[in-house]
Each structure stands twice: as C-alpha cells, then as structure tokens.
C-alpha cells in the first residue's frame, strides 16, 4: 500500500502576521489535508482558519503532540500515514522540526519510509540571521542557554570565543519572560567590540531588529520582557 505524505506546515511567528506567512501552495495543501499532528491544537486551528481552510473544522482529525503527550508511543500518529493518507505537521509557531519537538515525528517518518515535504514559511532564526548583517556562511543556533547565571556567563563567553575563532555567527534565545536577564548577562560578559543583534517580535506589528556593538548597547534602554527574541553575536 502506498504511504501518505507528511507535510511540514509553518505557522506565523506573531499575531496578525498570517498574510506574511503563507503561500498559495500552502493554502492549496492545507485544503487537501484533513489530518494534522500539532503541538498546540488551539494555535493550529486558529492558523488554519486564518489561512483559509475550507474544510469544516469538525471534519479535521487533530493529533495532539503537546508536551504532555511526548514520550508515549508514536504509533498512533502514523496510523493515517501508513494507510496512504496525507498528514500535516504543525508546531506552535514557525517551522516544524526547527527548535521544535516535531523533529521526532519527522525522524520517525523517515524510518518508516514516509515522504517528508517541507513547505515554505517563517523561521525566526533564519530571518534574524538575514537581518543581522552577520556571517550567513557559517552560523550555529544553540537554542536556550543555561538558566544558572554562572553557567550562562561561562557559555556566553564560550560562544564569543567560538565566533571569533571560527568567524561564525552565534544564535541563541531565551524564554520570553527571562529575556531581559539574558540581555543583561550578554552585555556584562561580552567584549565591547563584539557585535550584538537583537531580533524581537519578528514579523509582528512592532518588529524590532537592530545590530550594534555590545558597547553601544550598554548605553541603550530596551525592554524585551515577554517578547519573542533571537539574540545573535559576532566577533570578527
């Protein structure tokens, strides 16, 4: 029996950013799919509605892959795919599988010989990199840095050293309510000449992306509390 296709469906990064986030092909695709694996059902249903899905939502089959479901058997998520039915995978925001638990579903799909098709859509790391002015030839995304202040300070210094040694852009992030603490530690532990880009609320109505030296940032007042933010440093 022919297996279904797993489509990776990106979700907008910010409120009222739907029109910036989807393509005609994405709209056609979601209107051909009735089964989804999602990280957040409420977010997923909202996006599908905004994107123009014509299928009544009552007819959709939504598999919950939220944090309370992970660690269980993956078999139920693949029932439709193994029966020849196409399925969409959606994260809470951005691209599935990138800094996202959906990677586990994608990995299992490859093991089962299921075709995986990534759709074009927003990705905060790449868009931040594009807008930073830093090296796009060599870069690394580190996800979340340690919460402990001592460990975090050590890690920030390590990333700065890596950037200088490899001429490599270093990207990282934090839970939005701890952004100001992370910024404080970056400004405290990096050299004044190191370049820092702060990319906040990407695609949002109040999007803010700015690159300056750490020394210049020390003279700025900026509030990143509860605002999705990507931090990038580069020491050439």
From TrEMBL:
Keyword Disulfide bond set for record: no
The UniProt keywords, alphabetically, are: Methyltransferase, Transferase
User: Does Methyltransferase count among this protein's keywords?
Assistant: yes
A GO BP entry is: methylation
Gene Ontology molecular functions: methyltransferase activity
Q: Where does the source fall among the domains of life? A: Bacteria
Q: Which residues does UniProt call coiled coil?
A: none
Q: Which InterPro entries match?
A: 4pyrrol_Methylase_sf, 4pyrrole_Mease_sub1, 4pyrrole_Mease_sub2, rRNA_ssu_MeTfrase_I
Question: What PANTHER family does this protein map onto?
Answer: RIBOSOMAL RNA SMALL SUBUNIT METHYLTRANSFERASE I (PTHR46111), SAM-DEPENDENT METHYLTRANSFERASE (PTHR46111:SF2)
**What is the protein's given name?**
SAM-dependent methyltransferase
